[in-house]
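Project channel, design review

CF: Before we commit to the Streptomyces glycanivorans constructs, I'd like one complete example in the thread so the newer folks can see what an input/output pair looks like. Taking TetR/AcrR family transcriptional regulator.
RD: sounds good, go ahead.
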Amino acid sequence: MDAVDGEPGTVRPGGRTARVRESVLRAAGDALVEQGFDGLDLADVARRAEVGKTTVYRRWSTTAGLVADLLTDMAEQSEPRSDTGSLDGDLRANARLVVRTLTDARQGPLFAAVVAAATCDPRTAEALHRFYAVRIEEWAGCVDAAAGRGELPPGTDPHEVIRAVSAPLYYRLLASGDPLDETVADRAAAAAAAAARAGVYVS
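CF: and here is what came back for TetR/AcrR family transcriptional regulator:
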């Protein structure tokens, strides 16, 4: 049986159910990149995934629920934070990971499509907020560690520092269209580190 109780993203199915979920989420990502949120259709996703429509409708029920679970999966698959031993090294690693993700042939368009969907669908927006909260929380640890080593002023808000690293990178992806590369990543990391040392993010 493929039935899974609970809201999408709240369970970790195993066996055949896990394989079905993987296939459906991959198909949903493909469809989202190709057609956008408005063109996302559960029946089409089921066809792409070679899964019965009733399974897809029973498990996810709506396209918003499907995108929410897709974001949960993306958070689960994201690389863990680095630990280079220095604030500069850790923030640079974070920025470069963001750039690699946003310039990836699949992940870049997928993130852009999800962000666009979140502007008009509250459930997708909520799922996107949860996704970034998870990622920011994980990388905030490197800022806490830097503060513990005396690299940053006491009271530095770690979440604000991590947001400052990625914000200009997402701006380039979603607004300006300017190039994204490691040079841009390193500059964003250095700017966030300098601001943090200057006490800009002290609560």
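RD: helpful, thanks. The chain is about 70% helix and 0% strand.
CF: Residues 46 and 53 are 5 Å apart (CA to CA).
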